[in-house]
Amino acid sequence: MIRAPGSAQAIAATFAVLIPAVAEGFLGHAVVVDTVGADGLARIADATGASYLRAGNAEGWHLGAKEARGDWLLLLDAGDVPQLNWAQAVERHLLLAPDAPALLPLRGFAASLRERAAISFGGRRLRAGLIAPKGAVLAGRLGHAPRRLPTGRERVSG
């Protein structure tokens, strides 16, 4: 699920990394949640075979989860670019801890520090970078604080 508060360029960068995981069968279905009515997002979603919906930022994850088809969801913001081997890290996590949510942490000192603080003070809230059970996303809250994975994600501006 990709929440898109930004430009079409940012979401294109995210899709560029996710499409190989779809081709390998690791990811099944994408949902683009347009939170600002950005130009071109519906067209990009359609071109990639993703579902598209328009929702406010507050209800974006919840409505996107209703549309999603899988039991586990990867929550990203447009411009989030998972690093190399992210799919293997997620797959390993799901094998070793199948009931625990995980986090693809942001890379970069300042971004990582902000994210760590947000998790420390609101560890069970939904946020970009999470791999979480669909039921938790629908409920709007994780059952457990997420485990940080050894690979992460970067954010491109757009």
Topology:
Elements: E1 2-4, H1 8-23, E2 31-34, H2 41-48, E3 51-54, H3 60-67, E4 72-74, E5 76-77, E6 80-82, H4 86-96, E7 102-103, H5 109-122, E8 130-133, H6 134-139, E9 147-148, E10 153-155
Parallel strand pairs: 1-2, 1-5, 2-3, 7-9
Antiparallel strand pairs: 4-8, 6-10, 7-8
Question: How would you sum up this structure, described in words?
Answer:
The chain contains six helices and ten strands, in the order βαβαβαβββαβαβαββ. It is of the alpha/beta class and 158 residues long. The strands form three sheets. The protein has a four-stranded parallel β-sheet, with helices on both faces. Strands 4-8-7-9 form a four-stranded mixed β-sheet. The chain is globular and about 35 Å long. The protein starts with a strand and ends with a strand. The model has no long low-confidence stretch (mean pLDDT 87).
Overall pLDDT: 87
Order of helices and strands: EHEHEHEEEHEHEHEE
- Estimated helix fraction: 25-40%
- Relative strand content: 15-25%
- Strand order of the biggest β-sheet: 3-2-1-5
Label the structural class.
Answer: alpha/beta
Query: What best-fitting shape do the alpha-carbon axes yield?
Result: globular
Give the N-to-C terminal Cα separation.
18 Å
Q: Indicate the radius of gyration in whole angstroms.
A: 14 Å
